[in-house]
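ZP: hey, is the calcium ion complex queued? I don't see it on the tracker
AM: it wasn't, my bad. submitting now with these inputs:
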Amino acid sequence: MKMWQHFFDANNDGSNDLIVISGGNEKAMGDPVYQSRLYMNNSEGEFSKAADGLPQLFSSGGCVAAADIDGDGDLDLFVGAGSVPEDIHCHQQAAC
Ligand SMILES: [Ca+2]
Ligand SMILES: [Ca+2]
């Protein structure tokens, strides 16, 4: 299992928050272990996991970046997909 993290200001309060994504091929697609996590900074350097900060997506991640894609002044997230565990498993078998 691999993890990627990125600090960005999710709520535009001047303090960087943290997103952590997971990827790999140890678990099947749809496994909750692939759910990305968002940790909010309380402006004193203490982070707490946001209960409903991100949509439920149980797919293997491969990268994460933040930018204001739609130009509304708020940062948007791009989470790139990693490998598809079932595809890798298939390619490892001669009969695929
Ligand atoms: Ca913040
Ligand atoms: Ca935006």
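AM: back. Residues 68-70, 72, 74, 76 surround calcium ion (ligand 2) (CB under 6 Å).
ZP: great, adding it to the tracker
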